């Protein structure tokens, strides 16, 4: 990440404080306050909305936008405010966005999906046709490969959990299994890859192994029960559960069945992982097992000694979360957190742990393990293995310090 | 109707219900909807703009760095700086030998493993405000110019569908393919 973006994010922490997301110390007591019948019980409430919006008192819960590429408005990313959310599902309006050339305004009646290449029957589908196909609904996270990249930096960022890690969100996605359409096109059984291409101004494209395309790939038409939001690929996107977000090509217009990876810009110059020795990892598809404590987290203030619930999210692109362990003493001891049911593969899983804070300086961390046996690594170990030069696929453990003042800060510990 | 008959009827209904449920979910027996219409070769040619590392998909035409320099100054320089030096947007030239340092500079010359990707990406996505507006000859010329500025080809070398896939990129052998991922 470059200096300009870091600068912006540092400024935005002040904005977040102004939003009221960072709590002040609790007032001593409200015991003397008389209970009155509130005014909103003394006259009828408002009528109905044709499309509901959040309570006006929650209007400050918004995504954090870093910056666009200079001279552009739509090339960049906007982050989910993880610190303000609970449960496992991300509201569609707060889902993170990553676009490479803005959000196209696609008329669904004019959108077409072409399937061609190594197939017996090249086919063109309308959106209305896709809506008539058998569908499945699946709850899955999607995470940008560049999420958490600030942890590659030598110093911990002075940013909230959403600003640092908010390029992950979780929705129920509904759509057509891609294998149905590949089957209709008569895909060559020997073809090992497909190319997926979007209808945005970047014609963003990625090569995808046929094994994934025929396994759990979905042509998603619905998100959280309603048609996709434009910024999430309306009218149809590819969805590849557990794999780095950019491969789930939005605004999908073309699938070409091919014999080898096409080596597009976004699988060579981008979304490859430069290691400390100058070599780069290529085709690092699944997002690795990760967890974050979202409450308390950086920028919040714990009001005083007492009993709290630590709350956080965990996920893995390689399966379901098996367990999450939390330390409240900087790693001397680890307690097993409770996982909210259902614990679904490749979905955000909410974890919780009761915590009695005695008012002393402590460090909080969480560590996730998935059912494939992958363990989230400590940051020092992760950096020792991968170096500081990569941008993508950082799943290092996140640590928060709590000072005697109650102030919670991002630390490397 | 006796109690026994009632129970039997109820059991029969449940069995029938289960069978019906199974039949509905087993859509493969019915086949799939087949709602796609055949695509003609002409339609495919209009949309298929992808170029593989073997050169498949490269169109007729060609260009050299000299012509590419003129196109670059007009279409690219405002965002990518004189001679690909960068600013305000990505730097396109230089950085070779920096990838293992503390300040790696990733450019077409220092990082990109395939020259065909330059043609593919410029044609589909550049200039940012006017994608798919350049002629194939202009894209070939720009590709030649960027490869020349990076010291990978000579100024007079013609870049076309035959020559571009043969260009050896300096960082080509420094990528480790990890899919499918090894077991932990």
Question: Which oligomeric state applies?
Answer: heterodimer
Structural class of chain A: mainly beta
The main sheet of chain A orders its strands as: 5-4-13-8-9
Distance between the termini of chain B: 65 Å
The CATH architecture of the domain at 50-173 in chain B can be given as: Orthogonal Bundle
- The portion of residues assigned to helices of chain B is 25-40%
| Total E-strand runs of chain A | 24
Sheet with the most strands: spatial strand order of chain B: 2-3
State Rg of chain A: 23 Å
Q: What does the largest sheet of chain A look like? A: 5 strands, mixed
Can you give the mean pLDDT of chain B?
Answer: 88
Tally of helical segments of chain A: 6
Could you tell me which chain pair has the largest interface and how many residues each side has?
A-B, 66 and 52 residues
Q: How would you describe this structure to a colleague?
A:
The complex is a heterodimer of chains A (413) and B (184). Chain A has a domain at 290-411: Immunoglobulin-like. Helix content of chain A is 12%, strand content 30%. Chain A contains six helices and 24 strands. Chain A has helices at 3-19, 127-130, 161-165, 178-185, 210-215, 379-386; strands at residues 64-65, 76-79, 97-99, 112-117, 123-126, 136-143, 168-177, 193-198, 205-209, 218-223, 226-227, 237-239, 252-258, 273-274, 280-282, 290-295, 306-315, 321-327, 335-336, 338-339, 349-357, 362-370, 399-402, 408-411. The two termini of chain A are 22 Å apart. By secondary structure, chain B is mainly α. In chain B, helix 3 packs across helix 6 (136-149) and helix 5 (116-125) crosses helix 6 (136-149). Chain B has a two-stranded antiparallel ribbon. Chain B is built from six helices and four strands. Strand 5 (123-126) of chain A pairs antiparallel with strand 1 of chain B, so a sheet runs across the interface.
């Amino acid at each position: 990440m470059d200096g300009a973006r870091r600068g912006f994010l540092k400024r935005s922490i002040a904005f977040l404080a102004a939003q009221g997301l960072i709590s002040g110390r609790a007032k001593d007591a409200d015991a003397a306050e008389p209970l009155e019948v509130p005014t909103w019980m003394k006259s009828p409430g408002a009528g109905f909305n044709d499309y509901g919006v959040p309570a006006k008192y929650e209007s400050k819960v918004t995504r954090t936008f870093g910056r666009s590429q200079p001279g552009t408005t739509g090339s960049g990313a906007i982050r989910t405010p993880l610190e303000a959310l609970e449960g496992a599902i991300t509201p569609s309006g707060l889902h993170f966005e990553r676009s490479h050339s803005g959000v196209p305004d696609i008329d669904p009646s004019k959108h077409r999906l072409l399937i061609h290449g190594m197939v017996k029957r090249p086919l063109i589908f309308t959106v209305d046709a896709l809506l008539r196909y058998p569908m499945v609904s699946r709850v899955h996270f999607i995470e940008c490969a560049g999420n958490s990249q600030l942890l590659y930096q030598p110093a911990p960022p002075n940013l909230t959990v959403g600003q640092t890690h908010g390029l992950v969100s979780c929705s129920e996605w509904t759509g057509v299994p891609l294998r149905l359409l590949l089957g209709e096109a008569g895909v060559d059984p020997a073809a090992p890859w497909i190319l997926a291409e979007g209808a945005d101004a970047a014609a963003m494209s990625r090569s995808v192994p046929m094994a994934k395309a025929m396994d759990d790939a979905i042509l998603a038409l619905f998100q959280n029960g309603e048609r996709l939001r434009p910024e999430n690929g309306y009218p149809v996107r590819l969805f590849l559960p557990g794999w780095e977000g950019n491969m789930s090509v939005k605004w999908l217009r073309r699938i070409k069945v091919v014999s080898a990876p096409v080596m597009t810009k976004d699988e060579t110059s981008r979304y490859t992982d430069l290691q400390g020795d100058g070599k780069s990892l290529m085709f690092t598809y699944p997002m690795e097992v990760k967890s974050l404590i979202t409450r308390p987290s950086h920028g919040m203030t714990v009001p005083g000694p007492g009993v709290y619930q630590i709350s956080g999210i965990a996920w893995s692109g390689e399966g379901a979360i098996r367990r999450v362990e939390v330390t409240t003493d900087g790693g001397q001891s680890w307690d097993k957190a409770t996982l909210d049911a259902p614990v679904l593969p490749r979905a955000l899983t909410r974890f919780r742990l009761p915590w009695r804070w005695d008012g002393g300086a402590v460090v909080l961390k969480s560590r996730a393990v998935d059912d494939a046996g992958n363990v989230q690594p400590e940051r020092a170990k992760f950096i020792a293995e991968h170096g500081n030069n990569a941008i993508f696929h950082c799943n290092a453990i996140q640590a928060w310090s709590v000072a005697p003042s109650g102030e919670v800060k991002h630390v490397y510990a | 109707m006796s109690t026994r008959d009632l129970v039997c009827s109820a059991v029969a209904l449940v069995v029938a219900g289960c069978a019906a449920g199974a039949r509905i979910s087993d859509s493969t027996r019915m086949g799939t909807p087949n709602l796609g219409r055949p695509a003609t070769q002409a339609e495919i040619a209009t949309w298929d703009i992808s170029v593989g590392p073997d050169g498949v998909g490269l169109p007729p035409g060609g260009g050299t760095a000299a012509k590419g320099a003129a196109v670059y100054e007009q279409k690219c320089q405002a965002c990518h700086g004189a001679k690909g030096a960068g600013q305000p947007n990505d730097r396109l030239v230089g950085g070779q030998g920096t990838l293992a340092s503390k300040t790696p500079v990733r450019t077409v010359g220092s990082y990109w493993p395939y020259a065909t990707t330059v043609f593919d990406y410029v044609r589909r996505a550049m200039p940012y405000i006017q994608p798919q507006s350049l002629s194939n000859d202009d894209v070939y010329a720009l590709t030649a110019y960027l490869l020349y500025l990076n010291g990978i080809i000579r100024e007079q070398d013609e870049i076309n569908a035959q020559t571009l896939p043969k260009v050896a990129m300096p960082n080509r052998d420094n990528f480790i393919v990890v899919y499918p991922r090894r077991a932990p």
